[in-house]
Amino acid sequence: MTAERIPLACVIGSPIAHSLSPRVHGHWLRRYGISGYYVPIELRHETLEEHVRKLPDFGFCGANVTLPFKETVLSFSDVITDRAALIGAANTLTFLRDGRIRADNTDGYGFIGNIRQSAPDWTAQQAPTMVLGAGGASRAVISSLLGEGAPEIWLVNRTRNRAEMLREHFGARVRVLEWNHAPQELSNVGTLVNTTSLGMRGQPELHFPLDAIKRGTLVTDIVYTPLETALLAAAAKKGCVVVDGLGMLLHQAVPGFETWFHKRPEVDEALRQAVLGQ
Ligand code: ATR
Description:
Elements: E1 8-13, H1 21-31, E2 37-42, H2 48-54, E3 60-65, E4 79-80, H3 82-87, E5 92-95, E6 101-104, H4 107-118, E7 129-132, H5 136-147, E8 153-156, H6 160-170, E9 174-177, E10 191-194, E11 218-221, H7 230-237, E12 241-243, H8 246-252, H9 254-261, H10 269-276
Parallel strand pairs: 1-2, 1-3, 4-6, 7-8, 7-10, 8-9, 10-11, 11-12
Antiparallel strand pairs: 3-5, 5-6
The structure holds 2'-monophosphoadenosine-5'-diphosphate.
């Protein structure tokens, strides 16, 4: 008779020590009394596939993927969800019983889930959304906004060429605006999203004047250190609806936990406090 196996999951990346995912999943495992474990594992590029393929042998049922492996894992995954293919990166791997690896991307799901929870009346459908940044996070945000029926996405990036590449990838609903002209267009947007690393502790400030923004515009930032970025503070002063970025991290973790540990977990204040270490 085989003993019952304790479910294991992990987050892989390099470096990995600062990942908050172990706090998120650890909180849920304790809260729901599940006898599983979630650990951070540092891997190297040269042995990434070999080591990921061994994880099921040790009892792992899945893994989150963070920088710098989110794109690379797609190259050896056997089943790729549509949203992971569209974004071109994966953050959630599931090890199927037949040995195949299924790659999914829940970042866009987390982005929308966070806004929905904080601003239940929000819709992407009634006005253009302005998105700052054209990196990996921007791809997830744009794909989820398009999935929500956003009529237009106005994409603004320091390097215009990267924004043009995303327009080609996602199609005509994406329009590229010049960084210097974009602030004047704010009066016409319903949602403003920062997907750049600007404003993060240790990074340069984001200089993006909000003079033209309308009261009630939803403003969100994927940066969550600090929780209230200068962008969000300025938006709050203008009477905007402000959603901080921590919830995106919490919500993106939900589908993986549910698949691996067979319990749909709650994103609530207790989880936020556990993750913030208070
Ligand atoms: P991620 O995958 O986290 O989105 P990324 O691919 O490195 O990271 O993208 C970072 C984003 O922040 C990009 O849009 C980048 O602009 P560029 O494409 O011009 O590099 C933006 N960014 C980073 N530092 C910036 C800075 N000092 N000024 C303006 N934009 C910056």
